[in-house]
Write a structure and sequence with these properties.
This protein has 412 residues and is of the alpha/beta class. Helices cover 42% and strands 17% of the residues. The protein starts with 20 loop residues before the first strand and ends with a helix. Bound molecules: zinc ion (ZN).
Length: 412
């Protein structure tokens, strides 16, 4: 699939000095104060874009991206598209549509949703199907390093030397692995948790020629290879690397295991270094008290909200009302409340005299710098609105407007 990323979005300059970003990542607290930051965020499997869980995740990394830029760090940001995977193929069969056509349609929808929600594009937005040669080479290198074995014609990754770092208990790992694309029961594997690297072609399934036979890659090796190739450069397999390979690995908490664990293990098996300095995970979004999932059929889609004439900035604001790391519930009242807040902010931004901008800008930056405390940031905006309504003093609505756009992506 030939894909280009969505159009760039202008980020106004933030006119005050900001503190360094501090994030409570899944592997501890991390301070981001380097001149450059590399960030890899796991992208969609293009068959059900873009539900609110996706939107909440990409919005979180957009806040990080924006803040790092405001702080003066140069951000290299890569995102993948898992455009060959079991769920995509199953959906294509169910809907009687060619899998590539389905993927392309869903990627286009995703890009349009991201653009509309004002989410900054990655520099590289890479479909797995475009990196088959790179995956082939990486598997060969892993084979030389002694981490690959065969079961029938399929290739597996030997994860045994990485299991000391399992983020969950071994029993939980087995259960989750089975639920999220793994095959713990397969006879002939060295360890039940070993993930597939290259799956030999089954009748009629899409496949690619490779030095490991005609077939397709496993899920984790796709992200491992795309992140390393596009964040470290095309010669990444033959260069030496120091410390950590990348700064940020991001995604939803449902990716902690097995996906992020396996990608990191495979990166280490390839290059002998730790994969990411920080693993940042976003909570899940539920609907009206229930878990939101495709099996329950209660996914809320961004495109549906937009069709219903919901203002994208209201969706964005509504998603900012909860902390990114917590699981949250979505309901119509959250959207209504967000609409009221946006109306109030817009009304104040249209005035010639408002409360001074500087104290608000300092508070906003301090809130976001502290583990993306969006609740605190929105409170500061509400306080500024109240002050602007009761004691307007200066002609600084434009400064505030540009700052909200810059830091929070709220273009009002
Ligand atoms: Zn991934």
């Amino acid at each position: 699939m030939n894909i280009s990323t969505w159009p760039d979005i202008y980020v106004p300059k933030y006119p005050v000095e900001v503190p360094s970003l501090e994030i409570k990542a899944s592997n501890g607290v991390h301070l981001f104060s380097e001149a450059t930051t590399s960030m890899y965020v796991c992208g969609i499997t293009p068959y059900d874009a873009t539900h609110l869980g996706h939107a909440a995740t990409y919005l979180t990394f957009d806040l990080i991206h924006r803040y790092l830029r405001v702080q003066g760090s140069q951000v290299s940001f890569v995102e993948n598209i898992t455009d060959i995977d079991e769920p995509l193929l199953e959906r294509a069969v169910r809907d009687n549509i060619d899998w590539q056509t389905l993927a392309l349609q869903q990627v286009e929808l995703f890009e349009s949703d991201m653009s509309t929600l004002h989410i900054l594009p990655p520099q590289h937005f890479i479909p797995a199907t475009s990196v088959m040669k790179l995956i082939d080479e990486a598997i060969s290198r892993m084979q030389q390093n002694g981490y690959v074995y065969k079961v029938d014609e399929d290739l597996y990754f030997d994860v045994s030397s990485f299991l000391v770092n399992l983020p969950v208990t071994h029993d939980e790992a087995l259960r989750i692995f089975g639920e999220r694309g793994g095959d713990p029961e397969r006879v002939g594997k060295r360890n039940a948790l070993d993930p597939v690297l290259w799956l030999a072609n089954k009748n009629g399934e899409p496949g690619w020629e490779s030095s490991h036979g005609f077939g397709r890659p496993g899920w984790h090796i796709e992200c491992c290879v795309i992140s390393l190739r596009y964040l470290l450069g095309e010669n990444y397999l033959n260069e030496s690397h120091g410390g950590y390979l990348i700064d940020i690995q991001g995604g939803g908490t449902d990716l902690i295991f097995p996906h992020h664990f396996m990608s990191a293990a495979q990166a280490k098996a390839l290059l002998g270094k730790e994969f990411a300095r920080s693993y940042i995970h976003t909570g899940m979004v539920g609907l009206d008290g229930e878990k939101m999932s495709k099996s329950k059929g209660n996914l809320v889609f961004v495109s549906k909200l937009l069709q219903d004439r919901v203002d994208p900035m209201v969706i964005r604001y509504a998603l900012l009302t909860s902390h990114y790391s917590k699981d949250r519930m979505w309901n119509a009242a959250i959207l209504e409340k967000a609409q009221k807040s946006i109306d109030r902010i817009r009304e104040n931004l249209s005035k010639s005299e408002v409360a001074p901008a500087q104290p608000l800008l300092t508070k906003l930056a301090a809130a976001i710098a502290k583990d993306l405390d969006t609740e605190q940031a929105l409170q500061a905006i509400e306080d500024w609105c109240l002050l602007s309504e009761t004691n307007p003093q200066v002609d600084e609505a434009g400064v505030v407007s540009r700052a909200l756009d810059s830091l929070l992506g709220l273009a009002l």
